[in-house]
Amino acid sequence: MNRPFSQSEELSGYFARMFSDSFIKMIISKPHSKAAAIKKIEIIPLKDKYQLTLYAADKVFHENRSFDEVLEVCIKYMCDSFQQVNGWDGEAEYSLMISKGGKIFFKRQAKAVAPVKVRAGHDRKKNYLLEEGTVIPPLIDMGIFTLTGQVVKSKADKFKQINRLLEIIDDVIREVYFLEVNFLEVNAPEINAPLNIIDFGCGKSYLTFVIYYYFVYIKKIPVNITGLDLKADVIERCNDSAKKYGYDRLHFEVGDISKYKPHDRVDMVVSLHACDVATDYALYNAVRWEAKYIFCVPCCQHELNRQMETDSLKILTRYGIVKERVAALMTDAIRANLLDHYGYRTQLLEFIDFDSTPKNILIRAVRGDQKVRKKSHKLAEVHALMEEFALHPTLYDLLADGEELQ
Fold first, then answer.
1. Residue 312's domain is classified under what CATH number?
2. How many domains is the chain partitioned into structurally?
3. Residues 179, 254: one domain?
4. pLDDT bucket at 370, cuts 50 / 70 / 90
5. By 3-state DSSP, what share of the chain in percent is helix, strand and coil, each rounded to 5?
6. Which domain holds residue 299?
7. CB environment 364-390: b (16+ within 10 A), e (fewer)
8. pLDDT (tens digit, 9 = 90+) per residue, 43-64?
9. In contact, 303 and 394? CB cutoff 8 Å
């Protein structure tokens, strides 16, 4: 898709604004063709050059270029292959989108929090979305931060895990949410509704509080978050904490995942460590409500382990520890395929290091264009696995009973 010269000049002006003296990072994404050789490009500053990281389907390439060369590369890729850019400097976050009709949308959002800032050369320091030295009340109550906002040494791994969760959410917010908001602001400026988020099985809700902090105080995104759990005493304490922190758009309710009825539309469903089939009910409700975003960390996946039987692949069921891990992986693979079949773009990501716990998979799904036909081959793969191992997954049964799989 070659764009006219005048549009190249317009793009050059926008890129010049993004490459400021305090430039931190840029991401070029969303290729026009799924068959494109390069899927994404990241750009960071080095001492006297810029490093380009080009992500192909199965390889990653690194190039060091001068400013003029980088600018030329950015314009060329945007003219020929890509439709979205996100950039960050010390003062703002920038977003640029090119519509199918060739119209350019550009936005600068002041005081946005940028992703990891790197030092020149190989001496790089990890910057987290939750910055050390910032007083964040939930982290203090969790014992992760001191009263002055420093990480308690014994809680360093927990701090990394929480930030990893936010990074996984932030990837979607940067690359999907802000793009859509920019488009709406240009075409329908009156639309500025908050994100409605449901957290199933919230428990003591420490992560719920952190997610609220991320959206409201870091990304400046208005949200309404509802935490749901079965224990009334836990819910009461959580509501008290929300009042103490001043989180006035966060509240908690006593409720059952399988029976819950939302008060409004649901934009995002979060389920962190819901036990066994509770995750399936959370995913089913997310599909039924047509939630745009899903983030689930499954836990205690016993269902398929109890069901697995096979004549041709007994090697996978003979040894207890192998059977347990295979069953857990099958459970999440089936969940991902079912979400894909229903029009979601689904990924299974490593949540934390395997050395910490084998229960380290996070399901991340973003609802796609519902005009696209359902991916029947993904459903066929589920059927084949169910037949081979005599499986009856709860999520499949829920979707089938609710006619979502038809």
1. 3.40.50.150
2. 2
3. yes
4. low
5. 40, 25, 35
6. 137-401
7. bbbbeeeeeeebeebbebbeebbeebe
8. 988 877 888 888 887 777 888 8
9. yes
